[in-house]
Write a structure and sequence with these properties.
- The complex is a heterodimer of chains A (254) and B (827).
- Chain A is of the alpha/beta class and 254 residues long.
- In chain A, 36% of the residues lie in helices and 26% in strands.
- In chain A, a hairpin with a 2-residue loop joins strand 4 and strand 5 (81-82).
- The radius of gyration of chain A is 18 Å and the shape is globular.
- Chain A starts with 16 loop residues before the first strand and ends with a helix.
- The two termini of chain B are 25 Å apart.
- Helix content of chain B is 56%, strand content 16%.
- Classes of the chains: A alpha/beta (254), B alpha+beta (827).
- The interface between A and B is medium-sized, with 32 and 32 residues.
Chain lengths: 254, 827
């Protein structure tokens, strides 16, 4: 097992821990338990994939970890802030400064240009954009030529690149990606994942990615596989084949 | 597919109910308003004033009380058209006719009090063989008084009383008192004929009873046959009521005209609103429709699906809408009665007739609106449809913009017209110009909105906070959506301002011309005969006493081979008019206005092509055709009507009459002294024309018609705004996820609504305030829109509040779902 993942929480987070879930449980309407006593640490600079069959709780994990949703019990700690205790508005302002999001459906604002979309979180936070960083980012992601276009004029792969640039614009502590390649063809998906991996490696960016695709998960450093709201198994630098067989095993078990 | 179309429509509709609520409201309000006009029209066509004095007559012969107009609604004549006396003998000879009574009513004044009452021939009342004290009037000086009048005046059997017969005092003795319908005093037929001054013994109408074994309908047919060579009207049953009341029949014509004009306005309005609601609903379902196309639905099937969906909604709200309409017509009828447009006692025709008419109209409107709203969405290639369902902003077509621009341009000369001509044509042009400009704006709106917001965007980028900045961007990018709301709101503003301001301008123009043109020293009111006025002029210090009567003349004109007849308000003035009024004569001389003569305002003179010395043919309000000579042309056509007749023309071709007012030149104190000796006559210093009450009532009706329409428009826009905000829940969820707080989102949405409202107010002002300003400048020399001061700020505020509350409400609702849920449910 990797040292990245610990089942027990530590009283004080190590400076190198970006995100920590401590005994997080999420139940809906008192009956359905989507997350069942999950604990998980994500160190800085890690690229973690979360896999599992439908209904295993991976989306709920992402929502609770990112502060989009609050756990029924347990704690979510981002850096030095306990997210689960904050109000909706505080979580929102924290989100725009310290958390980036990438979605399957890109979720760009269609009325804004690429450049405006990328800087939108900064604008919402009334933050002055770091020009040098944005230029570097845009150049690295390959959007320099597309800044004045609108999302509707871009291909899916290009739109997802814009979404990646947007998620990184505020230099967040952590980026959450929810099936980022779900809407893309195989080649484009590969390019986007390679880009994500490169960004992690080059900039030391922490990324948590939810996916059902073993091929996508294999681009991450480590992978946790979830089942019935619990972490079923953890893999350190697994191959796509290992993950696929684990998932097949899960399906036959069910 | 077609069998399951309804259920498929319904299941899709349930998921996107927001847009369909707007369609439902549009249909509900539309159905209610059309029901009101159908009820008014059927009332006009089928309801009858209840019979009162004619209750015991089986068959009635009366004159045609309407002027027939080819291919249009006949024009009601408001004064009694008489029946020639020889008809009496003619109908008496028809087999089955038992008794014949000629009816004749004229007005007399009680010398003691100055009260004006009806005097009638006893014959008609005698048909019903009423109980009476004393005996029926046998001949002058016998007078029978009805019980009500006896109670009012204190007259008793055997009393003598003096009645003024058009200025001539005559003493009668009360020989009978009877409880008969129709208040007044009664004399025998011969005396009535003499006193009424009716030429050649003409009567108001002829009533008959039939023999006990005869069928009234059959007798009526025989009477009609006997009168085949005349245009007299033979009526039985309920229709007798219309013959009895002059105004009843006339008011029904007016009612029909009102219903017709309502119907045409409503058709445009409801069409626009339904189409607007429909396009919001289609936009809400765009993605679903695109998916249907992708799985193999043909464009036609998609359109049919949308149409079926809308029809189901329409069918659901149709009956409640009609029921609402029935209720509303009761209230509206009350208003009309109050304004004197509907005779008291006329029953409303609450027939089930409205149901099929309204049903067919509304369903047809919905079908057309649905099919055209979904036209674009249904014809897109399936793949593109799926793609475009995500990317909403699209460019409006060029043709649309060009046509809109041309319409707006064409409205400009119309609004400038009042600066060049001061007449009704210019007035009407300015008002229609407003409507043309609004339609133009509806088409060119998206491009205009984009251009205006484009400037704002550049400035906003530099200074504004993120909420404002985003709001401006959205408004601009979704210019098609924004322009839709802006147009409808601008329509509401434009319509209201144009309606109120044009009415007020006309009133003010009239008042201003009265101020300038009434030069009399005193005004006398009460029941005045020509003999009374002749007497007044003999007083020391009184130079002239000129009676004024408001009436209507009909003018038949031929334009490009089409013969048309239209009523024109006219003023009849007595001799010596130039001493009391100054209508600003530019040709001829007002001194010549006596005998068979007429004066015309210069626009009237121009459009009738009649100059001083020409003879023109007119029809008077009692149907008589006259050919007066034009003796003067004047400028103040608003204050003194387009046509000014000599009272001699009325006297020559009608019955002797009582005047209600006269303008006097001379010493006001001498006039006051004279008036004080006459009961019921009052005098005041200075000159005043009555008749302003009438235009006030008309404006009340206008307002009463306008208000529901305005509410309807506002409700429709509120619905569309709410629905299109609800559609943005996905976009709002995205913004929340990337860090926009609830407050920021609400403030952004509110600002968008404010921008929409500001654009609408700007557009509405341009299309209405500008023409109305020019109208004010042209007609009154005052360059601002006339009307109550709160009109413009009031309606602007109302629009702003309505736009922001409906959008905020929808945004709050959209924010209730956690963003993660919204984003998870999207695909």
């Amino acid at each position: 097992m990797s040292s990245l993942l610990r089942t027990r929480t530590t009283p004080h987070l190590a400076a190198s821990t970006a995100l920590s879930l401590r005994a997080v449980t999420k139940a809906y309407d008192g009956s359905v338990t989507a997350l069942d006593d999950v604990s998980l640490d994500v160190p800085r600079g890690a690229f973690l994939a979360v896999m599992g069959p439908s209904g295993s709780g991976k989306s709920t994990l992402l929502h609770c970890a990112s502060g989009l949703d609050t756990p029924s019990s347990g704690a979510v700690v981002l850096g030095d802030v306990e997210l689960s205790r904050l109000s909706e508005t505080r979580r929102t302002t924290l989100r725009r400064g310290r958390i980036g999001f990438i979605f399957q459906a890109y979720n760009l604002v269609p009325s804004l240009t690429v450049e405006q979309n990328i800087t939108l979180p900064l604008r919402l936070a009334h933050a002055r954009p770091d020009r040098a960083w944005l230029e570097e980012l845009v150049g690295r992601i390959g959007l320099a030529e597309l800044l004045q276009r609108r999302p509707g004029e871009l291909s899916g792969g290009q739109q997802q690149r814009v979404a990646i640039a947007r998620s990184l614009a505020a230099r967040p502590d952590i980026v959450f990606a929810d099936e980022p390649t779900g809407a893309l063809d195989l080649d484009t998906a590969g390019e986007v994942l390679a880009l994500l991996r490169d960004l992690v490696d080059e900039f030391g960016q922490t990324v948590v990615m939810v996916t059902h695709d073993p091929g996508a998960a294999a681009w991450a450093h480590d992978t946790v596989v979830m089942k019935d709201g619990r972490i079923h198994q953890r893999f350190a630098r697994p191959t796509a084949a290992e993950l696929a067989s684990c998932l097949t095993q899960l399906r036959t078990l069910a | 597919m077609s069998t399951s179309m309804a259920s498929l429509s319904w299941s899709m509709a349930r998921a996107r109910i927001g847009g369909l609520v707007a369609v439902g409201c549009a249909v509900l309000g539309g159905a209610a308003m059309i029901t009101v006009s159908v009820v008014l029209a059927t009332t006009a066509l089928s309801s009858h004033v209840p019979t009162d004095r004619l209750a015991d007559a089986d068959v009635v012969v009366s004159a045609q009380q309407q002027y027939p107009v080819v291919e249009d609604i006949d024009i009601p004549l408001t004064e009694r058209v008489t029946v020639p006396a020889d008809v009496i003998d003619e109908v008496a000879r028809v087999p089955g006719v038992a008794e014949v009574a000629a009816d004749l009513t004229f007005q007399v004044v009680l010398a003691d009090t100055g009260a004006r009452i009806d005097a009638r021939s006893w014959d008609l009342a005698a048909l019903s063989d009423p109980d009476l004290q004393g005996h029926a009037p046998g001949g002058s000086p016998d007078l029978l008084v009805d019980a009500q009048t006896a109670a009012d005046t204190g007259l008793e059997l055997g009393d003598t009383t003096t009645l003024s017969i058009f200025g001539e005092p005559r003493t009668f003795r009360v020989t009978g008192i009877a409880d008969v319908p129709g208040a007044g005093v009664f004399v025998d037929a011969e005396t009535a004929a003499t006193l009424s001054g009716r030429s050649e013994g003409a009567v108001d109408l002829i009533a008959m009873t039939v023999a006990p074994d005869a069928d009234p309908e059959a007798v009526a047919e025989d009477v009609s046959a006997a009168l085949a060579d005349t245009d007299l009207v033979v009526s039985t049953g309920e229709a007798r009521g219309d013959a009895e009341s002059v105004t009843g029949g006339g008011a029904r014509g007016e009612l029909l005209a009102l219903a017709a004009s309502l119907a045409s306005t409503l058709t445009i309005l409801i069409g626009c609103i339904t189409a607007g609601a429909m396009s919001v609903s289609v936009a809400n379902q765009r993605r679903d429709l695109a998916l249907l196309r992708a799985v193999g639905a043909t464009p036609r099937q998609v359109r049919r699906l949308v149409a079926t969906q809308a029809s189901i909604v329409a069918a659901v709200v149709l009956m409640p809408g009609i029921a609402l309409g029935y209720l509303a017509s009761g209230v509206f009828a009350g208003r009309l009665t109050g304004a004197g447009m509907l005779p008291t006692g006329i029953p409303l025709a609450l027939t089930p007739f409205a149901v099929p008419i309204v049903g067919v109209l509304m369903l047809a409107a919905v079908q057309v609106a649905a099919r055209s709203a979904s036209f674009r969405a249904s014809r897109m290639p399936a793949t593109e449809a799926v793609a475009e369902s995500r990317v909403e902003p699209r460019t409006p077509s060029r043709t649309r913009t060009v046509i809109g621009g041309l319409l707006i341009a064409s409205s400009v000369p119309q609004s400038i017209l009042p600066l060049l001509w001061r007449n009704e044509t210019a007035f009407v042009a300015a008002v229609t110009g407003t409507l043309v400009a609004i339609i133009g704006f509806a088409l060119a709106g998206p491009v205009i909105v984009r251009a205006v917001t484009g400037r704002v965007v550049q400035r906003a980028s530099a200074v504004a906070g993120p909420s404002t900045w985003l709001a401006v961007h959205h408004t601009r990018a979704f210019s098609l959506r924004t322009a839709g709301s802006v147009t409808v709101l601008a329509l509401a503003i434009g319509l209201t301002v144009a309606q109120i301001a044009s009415g007020a301008t006309l009133t003010n123009a009239t008042a201003a011309e009265h101020d300038a043109g009434l030069v009399a020293d005193a005004t006398v009111t009460g029941s005045l005969s020509q003999a009374d006025l002749d007497d007044l002029v003999t007083e020391d210090g009184v130079e002239a006493a000129v009676p004024l009567v408001s009436t209507t003349v009909l003018r038949t004109s031929t334009f490009a081979g089409d013969v048309s007849t239209a009523p024109h308000p006219a003023l009849a003035v007595g001799h010596g008019a130039s001493d009391v009024i100054d209508p600003d004569v530019v040709a001829g001389d007002l001194e010549d206005l006596h005998g068979d003569t007429v004066a015309l305002s210069s626009p009237t003179s121009g459009s009738w092509d009649a100059a001083v010395g020409d003879t023109i043919e007119l029809t008077l309000d009692n149907g008589a055709t006259v050919e007066p000579t034009v003796v003067a042309v004047y400028e103040r056509g608003f204050g003194f009507s387009g046509v000014m007749l000599s009272t001699d023309v009325l006297a020559e071709h009608g019955d002797p009459r009582w005047y209600d007012m006269a303008l006097v030149a001379g010493d006001p104190s001498a006039v006051a002294t004279w008036a004080s000796s006459r009961p019921g006559v009052e005098s005041s210093a200075g000159a005043a024309l009555s008749g302003d009450d009438e235009s006030g009532a008309e404006q009340t009706i206008n307002l009463f018609v306008l208000l529901p329409m305005l509410l309807y428009i506002l409700m429709a826009v509120a619905n569309s705004l709410a629905a299109s905000t609800g559609r943005r829940r996905h976009e709002l969820a995205t913004l929340r996820v990337i860090g926009m707080t609830r407050r920021q989102i609400l403030s952004m949405v509110r600002r968008e609504a404010v921008i929409t409202a500001i654009l609408a107010i700007g557009a509405g002002m341009l299309v209405a305030v500008l023409p109305m300003t020019l109208l004010g400048l042209g007609f009154l020399g005052e360059p601002w829109p006339h009307g109550p001061w709160w009109m413009v700020p009031g309606i602007a505020g109302l629009i702003a509040v309505m736009a922001t509350t409906s959008t905020s409400w929808a945004a709050r609702r959209a924010l209730r779902t956690p963003p993660a849920t919204v984003l998870a449910a999207q695909d």
